[in-house]
Design brief:
The complex is a heterodimer of chains A (209) and B (256).
Chain A: E1 4-13, E2 16-26, E3 31-35, H1 42-50, E4 57-62, E5 65-66, H2 71-76, E6 78-81, H3 93-103, H4 111-117, H5 133-141, E7 151-155, H6 163-178, E8 182-186, E9 199-203
Parallel strand pairs in A: 3-8, 3-9, 6-7, 7-8
Antiparallel strand pairs in A: 1-2, 1-4, 4-5
Chain B: H1 2-20, H2 26-29, H3 35-52, H4 55-75, H5 79-102, H6 107-112, H7 114-119, H8 125-154, H9 162-187, H10 194-220, H11 226-254
The chains are: A alpha/beta (209), B mainly alpha (256).
């Protein structure tokens, strides 16, 4: 049974057709990389898959059930990481992570361990506004280490992350896929640590006409 | 060398995570999704942010005090005139001070992406929204109520009217926060939605203004004002039950 599937999606933005009758099925263990030039609708597709945006036509199914009819279950099993990290400047790294985990109904006894794993050890008590852009994103990404949501939808997760961090994240993705989760991500970089045969690619074309 | 050591440590950590967690046991490892828990979570967060970003508390309060204190300077210190217009001044100032603070309710959350995360939370949206509105009232409404009696003295408000003033503020300011939240939720996606927000929200505030000032005036004459209070209470309960759902729906549209 596919974890998440899209049926006949059509997306129109600013009177421009981004994609039409797009159907896809994502199974446990899949790593899907969505490629395409800027403005080709990668973010729109991810937002539609996560239920944040409504498609012009078509619908999204979670385990063969419409996501609007199983909102709570779908959201419990979904981890969405967007362009905006959702980290509050006024709170410390640890408070941010604790809140983000609790908001999604997770226990958060180990936030210090997660922060250490994402290389933020020693910054737990620092206000997010005092941290760099990369560290900011890392606070939000630390949630990935508390992985009980099988569906990961990640929009440009490597932005502002250093090389070492990127390879750490890539290993985390393949481990997640091996455990029966699925990862849907957009990135302009090639995934280095993940074997090419493990990654399925969706390429969105940009029609200049 | 150090680099290498770090990366091996990282891999070790990684294998550890893989060992002790398996996917699919969401029900077991996630907390019970209780309404109270979600409410307290968001309330605590918003109050923490407000305490570290004191502008949010001070700005509307300062605006309220400045507007009210300017009136005696402009109109003159005659006690009779001032006490006649005092209820109106205090309430109009409270209304504008709330309007000034509304923007912060969802704007910053929208800009840094935490609003998206809230919409994707398994908790029902209305409970999260209700917590945010309650936090907004604690930050802006409550300080206004606390300082209003002091300003009433400045305006020579009739002695019999103090209870009415406090009661109308206590029932009326939550209505301002609740109705205002609907307007903010509708305009949060617009870059410069300030003017539109005022146009949307101010007409909805007028019933509160009319009945509140009427209650205070009636109290000054020594007559019962329970009728006006009942209407404000009805507005309060009506908006308390309906506004969170409207806000939730509006936020979904705004972030679409």
């Amino acid at each position: 049974m596919p974890l998440i599937s899209a049926v006949n999606l059509t997306c129109i933005r600013e009177e421009r057709l981004l994609f039409d009758e797009l159907s896809l099925e994502i199974y446990p263990g899949d790593i899907i990389q969505i490629e395409g030039p800027n403005g080709s609708g990668k973010t729109s597709l991810l937002r539609i898959l996560s239920g944040l945006s409504q498609p012009y036509d078509g619908h999204i199914l979670y385990k063969n059930e419409k996501i609007s009819s199983c909102r709570e279950e779908f959201h419990q099993n979904l981890l969405y990481f967007g362009h905006l990290s959702g980290v509050k400047d006024e709170m410390t790294a640890e408070e941010n992570l604790d809140f983000n985990l609790a908001l999604h109904g997770n226990k958060n006894e180990e936030s210090l361990t997660y922060l250490a794993k994402i290389n933020l050890a020693g910054f737990e008590e620092s206000l997010a506004s005092h941290l760099s852009a990369g560290q900011h994103r890392r606070i939000a990404l630390a949630r990935l280490y508390h992985n009980n949501a099988p569906i990961w939808i990640l929009d440009e997760p490597f932005t502002a992350i250093d090389k070492q961090g990127v390879s750490g994240l890539e290993q985390l993705f393949s481990a997640h896929a091996q455990r029966g989760g699925c990862v849907i991500l957009t990135t302009h970089q090639d995934l280095i640590s993940i074997k090419p045969e493990q990654v399925k690619k969706i390429t969105l074309d940009y029609d200049y006409l | 060398m150090t680099l290498k050591a770090q990366s091996t440590q990282e891999t070790e950590n990684l294998t550890a995570t893989i060992d002790n967690s398996m996917i699919g046991d969401t029900a077991q490892s996630s907390q019970q999704l209780s309404y109270r828990h979600a409410f307290m979570l968001v309330l605590k967060r918003d109050l923490t942010i407000a305490m570290r970003h004191k502008d949010d508390i001070i700005n509307p309060l300062l605006f309220f005090v400045i507007v009210v204190t300017l009136f005696p300077l402009g109109i003159g210190p005659e006690a009779q005139t001032l006490s006649r217009i005092a209820p109106g001044i205090i309430w109009v100032a409270a209304l504008l001070a709330t309007l000034l603070s509304l923007d912060r309710l969802f704007k910053s959350d929208h800009l840094d992406g935490s609003l998206e995360q809230m919409l994707l939370s398994p908790h029902p949206i209305f409970i999260l929204v209700l917590a945010k509105i309650f936090a907004h009232w604690l930050i802006t409404g409550l300080p206004l109520i606390l300082i209003a009696p002091l300003l009433a003295v400045l305006l020579h408000l009739n002695e019999q009217s103090y209870t009415a003033l406090l009661l109308t503020l206590l029932l009326g300011t939550p209505v301002l926060s609740l109705l205002g939240a609907v307007g903010v939720a509708l305009t949060v996606g617009i870059k410069k939605g300030g003017v539109l927000l005022s146009l949307l929200v101010l007409p909805l505030y007028i019933p509160v203004l009319i009945f509140a000032t009427s209650a205070i005036d009636t109290a000054a004459l020594g007559l019962p004002y329970s009728g006006q209070l009942a209407i404000i209470a009805a507005l309060f309960f009506g908006s308390l039950t309906l506004a969170p759902f409207a806000v939730g729906a509006a936020l979904k549209v705004s972030t679409n």
